[in-house]
Automatic annotation (TrEMBL):
It comes from Cystobacter fuscus. It holds the Pfam family PAS_4. Residues 394-613 form the Histidine kinase domain. Keywords: ATP-binding, Kinase, Membrane, Nucleotide-binding, Transferase, Transmembrane, Transmembrane helix, Two-component regulatory system. This is histidine kinase.
């Protein structure tokens, strides 16, 4: 602050155009003015202290040049004109004083070294070389020639030595220009690099500030004393809503309206200042009634700001409003529970459909057997036996003579034997049909009983042999597979029973069998095959069930959406079975995946389940896989 009066004084001698120059250029202009203001009183003092002779004329002229330089600077539009005028005036004044002086050794004075340095500083290396070259030529060449021609014997120094001294002075001046140029170039290079660095930093700072300000996240930073360094607009607005006051940089970050919250945050800040990073969720709500009450859930991240050698210089806090996500997760959980319930009803409906198909097929068999029994009884040979009995009764008194002499009596034993054989055949047919009828009725009863077992609520874990459960699922589709000419290929490895929710697993198996049946029915392949494999996984703790068909296959663009709710490629499909099956597999801590090489190449659905059932501390995770 103490130098403001000096800069104001120097700026008073500069034109408006020069005052608008960059800081480095303005500094050189001020040096020019300062040099002139310093040299004018110094020169006048010199003239007052020494006798005025012809040798002092250049000094008087130089004082005038300093004053003229000040006038030029007041009107100039660039530094070049007043600086060149000053430097050339100094050269002319110095050369004239040397030529007019009775002491020619003045050409070797150290003050001459200032002219190249001053010229390079004010004009730059190129124009500085012009000024230095003029001075070097005058002192190194013209001055010795002038002394030899016009003032021989004025100095006691031999001519040869004097010439060498003048040449050395000229070389020294050029050397001063070289050193000044190197210094100026390095200084300008460093200054340009610094300016570029500062410009880059300012640009980066602007971009970062713009990025932070454009974010809806709450972002702010604190120093080690928990004073606010910076905060974006979203944070300032949130703080104003929460605390009812502005968040001012430099003040300590606090919660004046909610001291309980302050007690929670201070230990967290201390942990981060110790070098720890924290991330947590926090529910924030306004304690007092406000015009705009706040109730949000924030995902917070606090990180230390590290300086040299890993020293903590402060901390940054970023918070994201996840209230909508939390509400969506809650709604998703409710939807998932609803889907699970719906999936159970859908599974029950799917099983009921299979039961009805199978019962219908069995009833057809029962009806056929009943029709055969009716036909057999209607055309039975028992009436012939009655006729034979009536005939025997009519001739009971003369039975021997009737059998021996009467033609009808003679034929009667053969007739009875033939009738007995026919009745034996009828009995066998009736026995077979009654057996088939009984088996059909028992089959219907078993189907109904099995449906009642599977219709109960799920969630109970049972140790089940999976091949048996697959066979039961196949029985529900047996009629459909037989009618469509679908051949079932079983490849069951020797696997142990698994602990599983019977209802959920049967639901998945029925859906997969139904999906395979539709794929094979729609296929034009004559040899329709469904291959069912059961094996243990690589670790032995998982059971792998594969349903591989040679049906219509799946297009690659449909694989990614195959298990999505509502997605189906069937004309009359509802897009629910595979989605629910995948959810059920996930609920049992397994996974359901599908692979297909494309349309017309069939598809393979793979169900992987844990042998020992879900662990108590294991959380289900989404595991839909497509390949």
């Amino acid at each position: 602050m103490g130098y403001l009066w000096l800069t104001s004084l120097l700026d008073a001698f500069l034109s408006d155009a020069l005052l608008k120059a960059p800081p480095s250029e303005l500094h050189r202009q001020r040096v020019l003015i300062a040099a002139c203001l310093f040299a004018i009183p110094l020169g006048m003092s010199y003239l007052l202290l020494v006798p005025f002779t012809a040798a002092e004329v250049p000094t008087l002229l130089l004082i005038g040049c300093y004053a003229a330089t000040l006038l030029l600077a007041r009107r100039a539009r660039s530094l070049t004109l007043p600086a060149m005028f000053l430097c050339l005036s100094m050269v002319v004044s110095y050369v004239v004083s040397i030529f007019l002086s009775a002491h020619p050794e003045g050409g070797f004075h150290a003050s001459s070294m200032m002219i190249p340095a001053f010229a390079v500083y004010l004009l730059g290396p190129r124009l500085g070389l012009v000024v230095t070259g003029c001075l070097a030529v005058c002192l190194g060449i013209l001055h010795p020639l002038f002394r030899v021609r016009f003032t021989p014997g004025l100095t006691a120094i031999p001519l040869d030595e004097f010439t060498v001294m003048c040449a050395s002075a000229a070389i020294a001046l050029l050397g001063s220009w070289v050193l000044s140029t190197l210094h100026s170039t390095s200084r300008d290079t460093a200054h340009d690099a610094l300016e570029r660095t500062l410009a880059t930093l300012r640009e980066s700072e602007g971009k970062l500030s713009s990025l932070i300000e454009s974010s809806d996240d709450l972002v702010f930073s604190l120093d080690t004393q928990l004073r606010v360094i910076t905060a974006n607009t979203a944070m300032r607005r949130f703080y104003r809503r929460m605390q009812g006051q502005e968040l001012v940089p430099g003040q300590r970050f606090c919660f004046p309206r909610t001291p309980e919250l302050q007690a929670q945050w201070d230990p967290r800040f201390n942990r981060v200042l110790a070098g720890e990073r924290l991330r947590f969720e926090q529910e924030e709500h306004s304690e007092e009634p406000l015009e705009d009450p706040v109730h949000v859930v924030l995902d917070l991240s606090i990180s230390p700001i590290l300086g040299d050698e890993g020293r903590v210089m402060g901390l940054t806090v970023s918070a994201r409003d996840i209230t909508a996500r939390k509400l969506a997760e809650a709604r998703l959980g409710e939807m998932h529970r609803s889907l699970v319930d719906v999936s159970r009803y859908a599974g029950m409906a799917e099983i009921a459909t299979g039961v009805l198909h199978n019962v219908g097929n069995t009833l057809n068999s029962v009806n056929i057997s009943a029709g055969i029994l009716n036909d057999q009884l209607r055309h039975s040979r028992l009436s012939g036996l009655r006729k034979a009995a009536v005939l025997l009764e009519a001739h009971s008194e003369e039975l021997r003579a009737f059998l021996a002499t009467d033609a009808r009596g003679q034929r009667l034993p053969g007739y009875l034997l033939a009738l007995a054989e026919e009745l034996e055949k009828e009995r066998e047919v009736l026995r077979q049909e009654v057996g088939a009828l009984t088996e059909g009725v028992e089959h219907i009863k078993s189907i109904v009983v099995m449906q009642q077992q599977y219709a109960r609520a799920g969630g109970v874990l049972e140790r089940m042999p999976v091949p048996q459960l697959i066979e039961e699922a196949l029985r529900l589709h047996a009629g459909s597979f037989e009618r469509q000419g679908i051949h079932i290929v079983r490849e069951y490895a020797d696997v142990p029973p698994i602990l599983v929710d019977r209802h959920n697993l049967l639901q998945i198996l029925v859906n997969l069998l139904s999906n395979a049946r539709h794929a094979l029915v729609e296929s034009k392949t004559l040899d329709k095959r469904l291959r069912i494999r059961i094996r243990l996984g690589a670790g032995g703790d998982q059971l792998v069930i594969e349903f591989a068909d040679n049906g219509v296959g799946i297009a690659p663009e449909h694989l990614a959406r195959l298990f999505s709710q509502g997605f189906t490629t069937k004309k009359h499909g509802h897009g629910f079975g595979l989605h629910i099956s995948a959810l059920a597999a996930t609920e049992m801590h397994g996974r359901l995946s599908c692979s297909s090489t494309g349309l017309g190449h069939g598809a393979t659905f793979t169900l992987v389940l844990p042998v020992e059932g879900p662990r108590e501390n294991q959380r289900p995770s989404a595991s839909l896989e497509l390949s």
